[in-house]
Amino acid sequence: MKNLNIGIIGFGTVGTGVFKVLQSFGNIHIEKIAVKNINKKRELENFNNDLLTDNAYELVNNPNIDVIIEVAGGINPAFDILKAAIENGKHIITANKELLAKKGNELFAFAREKKVIILYEAAVGGGIPIIMPIKTILCANKIKKIAAILNGTTNYILTKMTEKELSYDTALKQAQDLGYAETDPTGDVEGFDTAYKLAILSTISFNKKVDINKIYREGITKITAHDIKSAKELGYRIKLIAMGQLLDNGKIDVRVHPMLVAKKHLLAKVNNATNSVMLSGYPVGDLIFTGAGAGAEPTASSVIGDLLVLASELENTDNPIPQAVCNHTETAEQIDIGDTYNDYYISVTAGNSPGVIGIIGTICGKNNINISTIMQKGINNDNTAEIVVITETSKESDIQNALKEMLASESIKNINNLLRVMN
Amino acid sequence: MKNLNIGIIGFGTVGTGVFKVLQSFGNIHIEKIAVKNINKKRELENFNNDLLTDNAYELVNNPNIDVIIEVAGGINPAFDILKAAIENGKHIITANKELLAKKGNELFAFAREKKVIILYEAAVGGGIPIIMPIKTILCANKIKKIAAILNGTTNYILTKMTEKELSYDTALKQAQDLGYAETDPTGDVEGFDTAYKLAILSTISFNKKVDINKIYREGITKITAHDIKSAKELGYRIKLIAMGQLLDNGKIDVRVHPMLVAKKHLLAKVNNATNSVMLSGYPVGDLIFTGAGAGAEPTASSVIGDLLVLASELENTDNPIPQAVCNHTETAEQIDIGDTYNDYYISVTAGNSPGVIGIIGTICGKNNINISTIMQKGINNDNTAEIVVITETSKESDIQNALKEMLASESIKNINNLLRVMN
User: Fold this and answer.
1) CB 3.0–4.6 Å: which of A96, B123, B371, B378 could bond B97 by disulfide?
2) What's the DSSP call for residue A191?
3) Strand arrangement, sheet containing A91-94
4) Looking at beta carbons, which residues of chain B come within 8 Å of A306?
5) CATH 3.30.565.10 matches A131-291
6) What whole-number distance in Å separates Cα of residue B102 and Cα of residue B111?
7) Residue contact A285–B295, C-beta within 8 A
């Protein structure tokens, strides 16, 4: 295995994890580490502070450095720094999902031009091996479907809401207290983090450039204890699902939103901060990869895995791991959420009038929606009733029209939630 | 990607699957296929019978062939044929777990000498990517534990016994009628197939040569409907588990036997013919890979995945995928089953005497065994009672001594089963 000199950009949880684990690999020499604050106290034994710099360009311009490991995150200044590194002929290993989702096409094209490679196993699913397997051992497959739990924070919150019947706010607060959620949880709970990962995963799975701006995205903030409870009673768990499908017409249906997942489905059984990726393809059929989606050590496994494979290949050839080179020429034609087909869960508050079930049924029927289950649970104190409907597979635009008609009806007081269902 | 000429040895289910899927890869040319019976009717459209030969040496001696795909199985004549292929400088892709488990060391050493590589993703877990990921993207890890369901036939039988409360014989018969089990099911139900796969998987996971002859092996033929039912009542499912552990003293504990798996454990939820491999390592933590463990198409995914990665690498270098080369110098020190530690399930038939629970408790205590659960379910017509015990972690040799003492006691009529437990 080739000796490699590396520079690490970012020395937070993941950077420190990578640093620690790398100590046991003799062929990897850490030349320099770029940090924001050079004076911050580091909790590392016998750490040599001379390794640190607050100028990342010291790394990317250092001719001794072969590989840049970027674990800082964000677009600025990471994008410019990595472009400079590529310009200087350095291979890149990054965990930066936002950067790859938003600027991946540009970076990959530039890397091809400069004959360096960008590896990013850690950007999707933390420690779960998914990027390298799709690009290597699974490359005989035409992947048709992705369904994945890609964010530990939201899965933790939904698990606690399910197990302990907590409200969203209480579960979020507990996740924050335990360090599973950030003070500003937006990136996780609104599904941005999941969408970045899905953009990367669907691009390499379908071999077409997926536009992050066209990925439909809903977070988990509107999930109520009532939704979780109703889902449970109907045999489902609610999960934030990253979904991608290659349709028969060649278009791509790719989106992030909470779903009711049938409790027999293996994804329904993935709890707490664990991540899981299901791929369906031909000829392999269904595969599910489950593991820790975040954390210093699992992420270090992926970063260093990329690095060691690269070191091993560079021993023999200047064109390492040709399968891993991203070269997507085709742009995915992404369909609008209104054109997708799903089974649905609709939760409404209705007036306690005898005809209300009939009204819901009539509105659904008029809009080509077949109801598979309808559940009314008693009468509220204010003489309203909570009704939950599960539909058969329907078109999203039909559902949206039906919801409008329901809202316009005297008998329906409120549409509490609309969720999609995975059986 | 390099153009490769290949020869396929074996044209049964898997060979035919590989042949079909390969039609869509323009860079792979099938030069010749070796079969047992050249006159057998093949259910393939427009198949050119001239591709067939009943002499595999025609392939391995053909200078036009770059890669031999061996999907025939068994030791003889596969071993001699593959040795000749390696001698002639051909790379090997094989799904032959028995051959690798029994003769892998010799084949890998010879391949290293002749500078060819042997790839075998399909030998373990069918379509599940596990061999290549362990050797590449997971290579930063020290793997400490394997727990896997590696045989679809036995998992199917155990699933049906659990779901439909069938006896072993009835479930086996149904599996045979559906083609999930062979007429002579020994290789599957006695755990041989699982043990071959475990020998391969544990060798690459622990990076030490594991001796197939020293893998403790028990099949599923002694599992009764009573065991399945008792396990269910106690919150477990029974699975045939391939287990491997790297102990703190550097020794290896590696074995195949049925286990009661806590129903919350993800492996307990893997049903029917699906396979699943759990790996625990540092720094990655726990990973679980689930998918189809057999079948023409999933197996073809792995065989062709190996082939395409090889083709891609050979474009750049004569030393392809150096990480995939097997070079295990150390021999694993495998411990005896008597020296292993487990939680146990003990099922006994006892006489209906008032002191029998006390006698079981006393014998266990004397042998350093703590009981965590004891369950007696009514009295049989012949005035005996079925008693089920779950122990805390105990040494296997202590358990065996306790069972001998129980059998010697007047009050215990029979030891019905002893199974190990995974919580």
Assistant:
1) B123
2) S
3) A52-53, A28-34, A4-9, A67-70, A91-94, A118-119
4) 137
5) no
6) 16
7) yes
Residue B43 is given by DSSP the state -
Partner-chain contact A282 B297, CB within 8 Å:
yes
Q: Are B32 and B59 in contact (CB under 8 A)?
A: yes
Residue contact A297–B309, C-beta within 8 A = no
Query: Quick one: which of A211, A201, A71 has its CA closest to A131?
Result: A201
Contact B140 A290 (CB under 8 A): no
DSSP reduced 3-state for A304: helix
Of A139, A296, A301, the CB nearest to B141: A301
Two tokens at B90? 């051909």
DSSP alpha helices (H): ranges in B315-354? Answer: none
CATH classification (class only), B341-422: alpha beta
Dihedral sign (CA B136, B140, B145, B147): negative
- In CATH, the architecture of A4-126+296-324 is 3-Layer(aba) Sandwich (3.40)
Report the distance separating Cα A93 and Cα A95, nearest Å: 7
B159 close to B272: Cβ distance less than 8 angstroms = yes
- Helices (DSSP H) in A115-259: which residue ranges? 131-135, 152-164, 168-177, 186-189, 192-206, 225-233
The separation between CA A352 and the C-alpha centre of its own chain, rounded to angstroms, equals: 41
The secondary structure of residue B235, as a DSSP letter, is T
> Which of B136, B289, B297, B316 has the most A C-beta neighbours within 10 Å, making it the best mutation to test the interface with A?
B136
CA nearest to B276 within chain A: A288
**pLDDT tens digits in sequence order for chain B, 423 residues long:** 899 999 999 999 999 999 999 999 999 999 999 999 999 988 888 899 999 999 999 999 999 999 999 999 999 999 999 999 999 999 999 999 999 999 999 999 999 999 999 999 999 999 999 999 999 999 999 999 999 999 999 999 999 999 999 999 999 999 999 999 999 999 999 999 999 999 999 999 999 999 999 999 999 999 999 999 999 999 999 999 999 999 999 999 999 999 999 999 999 999 999 999 999 999 999 999 999 999 999 999 999 999 999 999 999 899 999 999 988 999 999 999 999 999 999 999 999 777 899 999 999 999 999 999 999 977 888 889 999 999 999 999 999 999 999 999 999 999 999 999 999
Give the three-class secondary structure for B164.
helix
Domain regions of chain A by residue span = 4-126+296-324, 131-291, 338-422
**Cβ contact (<8 Å) for B283 and A297?**
yes
Contact B285 A295 (CB under 8 A): yes
The first and second tokens of residue B60, run together, are 């391995």
CA distance B222 to B236: 17
ipTM over 0.90: yes
Three-point CA angle A261, A262, A268, nearest 5°: 60
Euclidean distance between the first and the last CA atom of chain B, given in angstroms as a whole number: 47
Enter the pTM of the model. 0.96
Q: Which of A137, A142, A310, A327 to mutate to test the interface with B (most CBs of B within 10 A)?
A: A137
Asked if A100 and A198 count as a contact pair (C-beta separation under 8 A), the reply is: no
Q: Which residue of A has its CA nearest to B142?
A: A301
**Pair A33, A7: CB distance under 8 Å:** yes
Report the top-level CATH class of A338-422.
alpha beta
The CA-atom distances, in angstroms, between B83 and each of A90, A234, A372, B38, B322 are: 42, 58, 61, 23, 21
DSSP string, B292-333: E-SSHHHHHHHHHHHHHHHHHHHTT-SS--GGG-----SBP-
For tokens 């028969």, the residue is: A248
Measured CA to CA, the distance from residue B339 to residue A195 in angstroms comes to: 50
Euclidean distance between CA atoms A50 and A30, whole angstroms: 12
Report chain A residues whose CB lies below 8 A from the CB of B21. 140, 283
Q: Which chain B residue has the Cα nearest residue A293? A: B284
> Distance between CA atoms of B224 and B395, rounded to whole angstroms?
24
